[in-house]
């Protein structure tokens, strides 16, 4: 399934049209595809080449792989890069997860052979550095640190994950627009090298000696796309309206380079104008702040008009929905409440977040003391900089980075990827269901018969894509792995039926391991014994009332102490 189309920007379209090289109709805006940059970067040292030698190294890699044909498998990649076979398989699986459309020969899981052009682009962007957060205006206020036993004290663990997030408030963290601008600037800087890597050599002189076919040009859709979903080749005059029965003639790479740079420049100018307008107006609408910022202390219901899905703002990336800044509340989001194919849960505290919908991607960032249920994610879940959260997720893949004291109840088809500076993580099998879960899993391609929740794949602590956690001169070590949750501490999670939605799923579709089943049976047997003993007590009515009151009081105390009293309020409605 291809990426969803985005909203176009009239201003950017007009600017691009004025720049030339597009169809006569108003042109959609050129945007970076965020998925490769957000979910496709792997902290594998041998995939990250120094920028000064990047093009030369990848050209040599292309020469080594090309004799094997236009497709590359994991074994060939492992041999060419001198990396373990499991890391090569991880790279191809990650590539498959961030492609704009499924490649049948590679497969959804990356078990097949990748197109060499896609693979080169994937490895190239491993040199990308994420945007660094701007400094906090009141740094002394966040100078307190969490004691840590990390090998990187003073570098990685000076702040705990959530302190790091809080030390850079939402206003000072990179916005969606800032990140998109940063990605476009990266592509603008590197596009000449990227095209050289993809181009074919022909007889000729100067710029005419390097050409791109229309098919190769379309592979740039891995990094760039148009806001209305138009194929790249249909927006460029040198390929537009080509006869489908006649292959389009290759065009000089220099012509393609000029066309792309014109459109990137137009998009960057548009973003800069919008940013300046926002800075100059106290009442300007921030396209990256959702309504939840204004209602963080109230319950957010999926039928509420103040939902957390991002509004339709022309010119910005909008095939994602957001739940952001929630505190001491519950949020319910179903498929009808969400826009696009991804969800981001950001900076939520002491809340319960229900995402009961089929999606491709999900990000959980900067949350603490929160339970987050992710119904069915067909590509990747990424959890970063979280503390004391419980994540209940059914997904193809999950990546966990820089988290502490978190529990992950997982139904995952691939090994959980653990990277960065983590501490005291626990994993457990998936533990819930809702009526439409089975349908949602089938819709996004998650197989409930395969669950690798207890087989973490652990990479290094240092993230080469993040300059904050990659100080010069610090060598890498393997990240701390996760332990399996004690079966005696495992409990099923009940999702309330707010809207009485009918569906075929009546139980957890992921099979529990026997040791967890045994623990559940033991708990049920204990409960039955307690109930039986209470029923058989030979006491008068007054004593029965006292016993009932004592049980109710203890249960009420537990509801408040655990925060679950909020769930009862949710069941009662607004």
TrEMBL record:
Keywords: Cytoplasm, Cytoskeleton. Coiled coil: none annotated. Residues 314-446 form the C-CAP/cofactor C-like domain. Transmembrane segments: none annotated. It comes from the Eukaryota. Signal peptide: none annotated. It is found in: Cytoplasm, Cytoskeleton, Microtubule organizing center, Centrosome; Cytoplasm, Cytoskeleton, Spindle pole. The keyword Cytoplasm applies. Belongs to the TBCC family. This is TBCC domain-containing protein 1. It comes from Sorghum bicolor.
């Amino acid at each position: 399934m291809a990426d969803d189309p985005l909203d176009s920007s009239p201003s950017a379209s007009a600017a691009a049209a004025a720049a030339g090289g597009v169809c006569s109709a108003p042109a959609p805006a050129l945007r970076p595809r965020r998925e490769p940059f957000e979910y496709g970067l792997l902290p594998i040292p041998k995939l990250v080449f120094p920028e000064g030698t990047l093009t030369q190294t990848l050209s040599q890699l292309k020469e080594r792989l090309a004799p094997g044909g236009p497709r590359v498998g994991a074994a060939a990649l492992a041999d060419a890069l001198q990396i373990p076979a499991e890391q090569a398989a991880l790279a191809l699986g990650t590539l498959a997860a961030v492609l704009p459309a499924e490649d049948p020969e590679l497969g959804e899981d990356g078990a097949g052979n990748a197109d060499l052009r896609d693979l080169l682009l994937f490895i190239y962007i491993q040199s990308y550095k994420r945007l660094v957060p701007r400094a906090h205006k009141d740094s002394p206020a966040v100078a307190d640190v969490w004691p840590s036993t990390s090998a990187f004290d003073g570098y990685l663990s000076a702040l705990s994950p959530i302190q790091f997030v809080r030390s850079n408030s939402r206003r000072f963290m990179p916005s969606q627009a800032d990140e998109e601008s940063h990605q476009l600037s990266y592509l603008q800087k590197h596009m000449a090298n990227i095209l050289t890597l993809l181009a074919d050599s022909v007889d000729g002189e100067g710029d005419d000696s390097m050409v791109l076919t229309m098919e190769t040009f379309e592979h740039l859709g891995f990094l760039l796309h148009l806001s209305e979903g138009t194929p790249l080749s249909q927006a460029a005059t040198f390929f537009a309206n080509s006869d489908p029965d006649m292959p389009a003639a290759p065009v000089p790479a220099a012509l393609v380079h000029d066309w792309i740079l014109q459109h990137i420049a137009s998009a960057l100018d548009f973003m800069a104008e919008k940013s300046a307008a926002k800075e100059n107006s106290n009442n300007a609408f921030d396209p990256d702040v959702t309504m939840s910022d204004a209602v963080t202390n109230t319950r957010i219901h999926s039928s509420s008009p103040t939902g957390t899905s991002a509004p339709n703002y022309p010119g910005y990336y909008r095939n994602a929905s957001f739940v952001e800044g929630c505190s001491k509340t519950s949020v319910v989001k179903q498929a009808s409440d969400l826009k696009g194919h991804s969800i981001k849960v950001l900076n939520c505290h002491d809340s319960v977040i229900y995402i009961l919908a089929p999606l491709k991607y999900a990000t959980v960032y900067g949350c603490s003391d929160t339970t987050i249920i992710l119904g069915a994610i067909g590509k990747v879940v990424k959890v970063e900089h979280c503390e004391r959260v419980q994540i209940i997720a059914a997904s193809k893949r999950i990546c966990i980075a820089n988290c502490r004291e978190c529990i992950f109840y997982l139904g995952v088809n691939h090994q959980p990827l653990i990277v960065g500076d983590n501490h005291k993580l626990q994993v457990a099998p998936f533990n819930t269901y809702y009526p439409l879960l089975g349908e949602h899993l089938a819709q996004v391609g998650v197989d409930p018969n395969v669950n690798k929740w207890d087989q973490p794949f652990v990479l290094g602590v240092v993230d080469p894509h993040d300059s904050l956690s990659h100080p010069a001169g610090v060598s890498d070590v393997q990240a701390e792995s996760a332990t399996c949750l004690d079966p005696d501490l495992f409990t099923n999670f009940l999702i309330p039926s707010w809207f009485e939605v009918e569906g075929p799923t009546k139980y957890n579709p992921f099979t529990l391991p026997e040791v967890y089943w045994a623990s559940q049976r033991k708990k049920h047997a204990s409960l039955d014994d307690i109930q039986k003993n209470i029923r058989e007590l030979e006491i008068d009515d007054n004593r029965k009332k006292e016993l009932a009151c004592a049980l109710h009081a203890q249960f009420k105390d537990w509801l408040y102490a655990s925060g679950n009293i909020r769930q009862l309020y949710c069941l009662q409605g607004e």
